[in-house]
Amino acid sequence: MSQAVEPKGQIKADSTAEGSSSQFALPSHLLKSKLRPWVIIGTFILFALIIIAPTPDGLSRVGQNAIAIFVLCLIFWVSNAIPLMITSMLAIILLPLLNVMEAKAAYALFGNQAVFFILGAFILASAVMQSGLSLRIALRLLQYFQATRQRLLFGLLVLPAGLSMVMSEHAVAAMMFPVVLEMCVVLKFEPGNRSALTMMLAMTWGCIIGGIGTFLGGARAVLAVGILEETTGISIGFLEWALAAIPIVILMLGVAYLLLLFISRHEPKTFSGARELLQQKLTNLGKRTRRETYVGLLMIITILAWATVGHYFGLANIALAAVVVAFIFKLLSWKQVEKDVNWGIILMYGGAIALGFTLDQSGAASWLTQLILGDGVMTGIFLVFILAVIGTVLTEGISNSAVVALMMPIAIALAAQNGVDVRTATLALAIPSGLAFMLPISTPATAIAVSSKYVTARNTMSTGIILNSVAIGLFVLAALLYWPSIGFTV
After folding, report:
1. Is 233 exposed, middle or buried (CB count within 10 Å of its CB: 0-12, 13-18, 19+)?
2. Helices H, strands E: what count in the chain?
3. How far is CA 380 from CA 250, 367, 387, 480, in A?
4. Are 389 and 84 in contact (CB under 8 A)?
5. From the centroid of its chain, how far is CA 214?
6. What is the SS3 assignment for 363?
7. By mean pLDDT, which of 32-46, 258-272, 450-464 is the weakest?
8. Is 434 in contact with 400 (CB distance < 8 Å)?
9. Residue 424: CB partners within 8 Å, gap ≥ 6?
């Protein structure tokens, strides 16, 4: 979701499906620089060199061609020389052209249920936002938590986290930002004020941390599960993912809250003016509408269905059924959906799933794994640590969905090579890929906080290092002590 702060403190949001770092990544400047043509030309030259090179021992010609496509997509995804979805379209073109996969099979992967689950979830999120229900919930809870600085920070942290478990974390950031920004203005905070800093950081961290809790916070989780299922036939259910991730979410929120209190330890304990501001905003919203009530009821039923019968009926089927119900009862208009949903994300995920499937089936992923890491055997815990570090580091610079698309085939190959549950490897890579705290370029939630002028890149770097380090440690502890108890062995 691309945002820019306007002079009067309003936020201008261009809705996108996956709040990825792609639109805020530093390399995206290549799009407007003189380097862009050279990056594209150099990438295609490297692609051609890989294609015509002698096939290495242990790798098939099909696998070599798959690696060539992988390298091309890797450079374009990281550099953003061309948009993510166009890169995926290029992959779909090249797979049959180089005889890596039949065209019919490649295009069929656009019908993967993970893609349609993402589409359904984003349309439902549009209903929640457009009905005004999400803003009303946010204001009500913030009003409850605003009595003291500690309670307000707790509310600004926990509320976005909760909302990010049922809708895109970046849609939550776009919704919450104007409220928090206006609070800072009413309270007459100047840039550099630690209270304003912690309020913005609380909102940002809540969005990011809550987004890893379920499939709904960001499409990276569904993409990872989609690649896993297409590659191995093994899947992870909605409830299974939530059981594995939510305890980490709770612990991360606790650490984040303590860090916020430490940063603001010398600030006033109360904020005069916050109560009046929130009450005025609620008054302006008016009474809860019938549309809000029905949208809330539909979301509750849908989430319960995902958690209880999703394995039997399919997450995508339930999501699309809920979308149909929303239109039958006129809770949504198609015109609004067209504005809110980034349709390019469908192309991006379809191409990423096809590429991941090809790397595995051709043996290219296993060959790359041996080339990079050798034949040494890893313990399960060390593998979890390596994947968590890779996911955490890469997501600071490139789209979290691109991290999953690039690394999932290798993670699956590593797990198979070392006798580790492939579902555990999926969790160890996909969950950390959503925790980008350090750089403003890494996620829209952080970018819009920095755009407020109350938060600087130095703030996000210094605090992000702490949160990322804690997160990696929690993943290792979860894999060692908790995940085996719910069936995810190492």
Report:
1. exposed
2. 22, 2
3. 24, 20, 11, 9
4. no
5. 10
6. coil
7. 258-272
8. yes
9. 380, 384, 415, 479, 483, 488, 489, 490
**Residues 478, 490: Cα–Cα separation, whole Å:** 11
Q: From CA 459, how far away is CA 17, in angstroms rounded?
A: 27
How sure is the predictor about 270, in pLDDT bands with cuts at 50, 70 and 90? low
The predicted-structure confidence for 81-124, as pLDDT tens digits, reads as follows 888 788 888 988 999 999 888 888 888 877 777 678 778 877 88
Tell me which long-range contacts 81-85 makes (C-beta under 8 A, separation of at least 24): 81/30, 81/31, 81/36, 81/39, 81/40, 81/43, 82/40, 83/22, 83/344, 84/20, 84/22, 84/344, 84/348, 84/399, 84/401, 84/402, 85/344, 85/345, 85/347, 85/348, 85/351
DSSP H helical segments within 364-399, as ranges? 364-373, 380-394
Point out which residues pair with 2 in neighbouring strands. Answer: 14
Q: pLDDT tens, 46-76?
A: 999 999 999 988 889 999 999 999 889 888 8
Check whether 161 has a pLDDT greater than 90.
yes
Please state, in angstroms and rounded to a whole number, the distance separating the CA atoms of residues 438 and 144: 30
Residue 330 is classified by DSSP as: T
d(CA 153, CA 445): 17
Residue listed under structure tokens 């994947």:
387
CA dist 43 and 319 (Å) reads 39
Q: Which ranges constitute the DSSP H helices of 98-168?
A: 103-108, 113-130, 133-145, 149-163
Look over the chain and give the mean of its residue pLDDT values, rounded to a whole number: 81
Q: What is the C-alpha to C-alpha distance for residues 254 and 361, in angstroms, rounded to an integer?
A: 42
pLDDT per position as a tens digit, 169-194: 877 877 777 777 767 776 778 888 88
How confident is the model at residue 398, as a pLDDT?
A: 66
Q: H helices of 332-485, where?
A: 334-340, 344-361, 364-373, 380-394, 400-417, 422-430, 444-451, 457-477
- Residue of 472, 457, 434, 463 whose CA lies nearest to 26: 457
Q: Which of 108, 165, 117, 96 is nearest to 137 (CA)?
A: 165
Any idea what the Cα angle at residue 365 is, between residues 360 and 371, rounded to 5°?
160
CA–CA gap between residue 221 and residue 3 (Å, rounded)? 23
DSSP state of 4: E
Q: b/e map of 364-403 (b: 16 or more CB within 10 Å)?
A: bbbbbbbeebeeeebebeebbbbbbbbbbbbbbbbbbbbb
| Interatomic CA distance for residues 178 and 184, integer angstroms | 10
Classify the C-alpha dihedral 46-48-50-52 as positive or negative.
negative
